[in-house]
Every structure is written in structure tokens, then in C-alpha cells.
Amino acid sequence: MRTTLDIPDGLLAAAQRACGARTKTMTVVMALQQLVNAAKIEQLRDLRGKVRLDVDLKTLRGERVAGTWPARHR
What we know:
Layout: H1 9-19, H2 24-46, H3 57-61
Helix pairs in contact: 1-2
């Protein structure tokens, strides 16, 4: 999508150097992706302590439990 933006030259140049982007478009895309990723991480952090997980660590790791082997070891 083509969009016209008024971005301060110094800010765009600093962002381009900081992320190592070759083009202005790549700089803006990388910055927007970083913003979206940060928001997703924050949403996950907000869930901390609110989600109850009832899992068995040995089963998740595929370790031997109660004398049986997980299916992949049979």
C-alpha cells in the first residue's frame, strides 16, 4: 500500500541506522513490526498468573513416566 507520511528526517535516519535497514520503507516496516511484537508480548505478560496450566513436566519433556515410554520411543 502506498502512503504519504511526514516523518522528521533525523528520526527516520536514526531509525534506519539503528535497525540496519537499507531503505526507508524497510525501516518503517521493521519499526511497525517491532511495535506489533511489543504489544503482543505485553498482552502475554498481562496474562501472567491468570492462566492455570495443569501440565506434567515429565510428560511434556517426553520422559519415562510410571514405567512407560512415550509413543515415539516404542
